[in-house]
């Protein structure tokens, strides 16, 4: 209609929650690629917004990327979408070159595998006192996961070599959660995965990472809040 202002086709809106590591993946990727976007903070502990429920009716969770009003859900799908939808973005691609499908498949595998850090860590802090056997199992799992990631990283600067890419973006938002996991699981990341610990320090020097993540103390406060919400003593 005459007089109506048309929304630009490239308009991006990110539905997110401040401490979500999955949303932080998207924030880091958008920053790395130099793509401007609007941030929309969502309430995940109270009543979820109609916009979030409409945009992600299946899982009803963040992150959701709205591109010209069309929703893209799940963080790893969003990362891949950013590469494909914005091939001419100012920043580099997150995935290896399409000319190397093996490297792309390997990156996708390890990016998905990185979720296990969060899954095992969540099992640790959700344990109640007296669940010693379950604690040992959860600790063994996260130590194994971190060890596998450490081995895959090896002596490389980043998971893709010299280039900060998909696996780095997928994994680095879990770094501020690790001190809490260490405390609940009674293990040391520095001893378990020393190369991964050094990688985390390198990643923290990147502006996209530093501006997207919160200090471990804030994350630990949020975990304490969640424990109260779930009635975990």
TrEMBL record:
Q: Which residues form the GST N-terminal domain?
A: 10-90
Which key words are in the record? Answer: Cytoplasm, Transferase
Enzyme category, top tier: transferase
InterPro entries per the UniProt record, alphabetical: Glutathione-S-Trfase_C-like, Glutathione-S-Trfase_C_sf, Glutathione_S-Trfase, Glutathione_S-Trfase_N, GST_C_Tau, Omega/Tau-like, Thioredoxin-like_sf
Q: Where is the GST C-terminal domain?
A: 100-222
Superkingdom assignment: Eukaryota
Quote the cellular component terms of the Gene Ontology held in the record. cytosol
Asked if Transferase is a keyword of the record, the answer is yes
Q: Which reaction(s) does the protein catalyse, per the Swiss-Prot or TrEMBL entry?
A: RX + glutathione = an S-substituted glutathione + a halide anion + H(+)
Known EC number: 2.5.1.18
Keyword Cytoplasm carried by entry: yes
Could you state one GO biological process linked to this protein? glutathione metabolic process
Q: Which SUPFAM superfamilies match?
A: GST C-terminal domain-like (SSF47616), Thioredoxin-like (SSF52833)
Tell where it localizes: Cytoplasm, Cytosol
Gene3D superfamilies noted in UniProt: 1.20.1050.10, Glutaredoxin
Give the molecular function GO annotations.
glutathione transferase activity
- Task of the protein: Is involved in the conjugation of reduced glutathione to a wide number of exogenous and endogenous hydrophobic electrophiles.
Q: Which family would the database say this protein is a member of? A: Belongs to the GST superfamily.
**What is this protein identified as?**
Glutathione S-transferase
